[in-house]
Amino acid sequence: MAKYLLLIVTINEVNQVYFFRSISKEIQSIQLAFNDFPKTKRLVLGSILSSLATLFHLAGGILPVIGYFISPLASAPILICTVFSKSLGFISYMISILLIFVLVPSELIVFPFTTGLLGLGIGMAFHFFEKRLSILLCGSLFLTIGIMILLYGIKFPILGPSVSSSFNYSIVGSIFLFTLFYSWIWVEVSFVYLKIVSRKFNL
């Protein structure tokens, strides 16, 4: 019994160190390096990332089956762009919405409240928070609010026809737990990618 208790305590200590560890140093170096880029270069990079976000999102409706696996990647370009610059990230988010509206208006309703909003939320969190837990909670909150707006505000069946559009605390709790896990995945993936970028360019 004592061994099990010791194992539980050790796991809790590891989790506390892991989730409360600061992950801002590499991110700050990337942000500082990006600020030194010429304005034209920053705008071009933002435009490219906006286009990628749009293409990834539209893949779900263009490519059968495989497109649904590509579509969630629409968060990545917005997230990366927002990590580089808060203002440019927001502009890229809005440009992506405009591009989707022009190209495939029927796909517009999902992106601003789910994948796009998640990328924007996590990217913003990297500017304001240092701890891993705070960043993933911020991303989770953004995505939860977006899904709730679709489900309860717009009455769009984002979770499928079996989920009622009437407010339900258990559904909201389930949504938050899912977004917490999903946000955690994105935080880890983005952090690994940004570390690679930092090392590659000696930032």
- Can you give the helix content as a percent range? over 70%
Distance between the termini: 49 Å
The H-and-E topology, N to C, reads as: HHHHHHHHH
Shape: globular
Mean pLDDT: 82
Q: Give the low-confidence spans.
A: 1-15
Percentage of β-strand residues: under 5%
Helical/strand content category: mainly alpha
Number of helices: 9
E-strand count: 0
Characterise the protein shown here.
It is a single chain. By secondary structure, the protein is mostly helical. Helices cover about 75% and strands about 0% of the residues. It is built from 9 helices and no strands. Helix 3 packs across helix 6 and helix 7 runs antiparallel to helix 8. The N terminus is likely disordered.
Tags for this model:
single chain; mainly alpha; 9 helices; 76% helix; 0% strand; disordered N terminus
Short description:
This protein is an all-alpha fold. Helix content is about 75%, strand content about 0%.
Write the layout of secondary structure elements.
Layout: H1 2-19, H2 24-35, H3 39-62, H4 66-70, H5 75-84, H6 86-103, H7 115-128, H8 132-153, H9 169-200
Helix pairs in contact: 2-9, 3-5, 3-6, 5-6, 5-7, 6-7, 7-8, 8-9
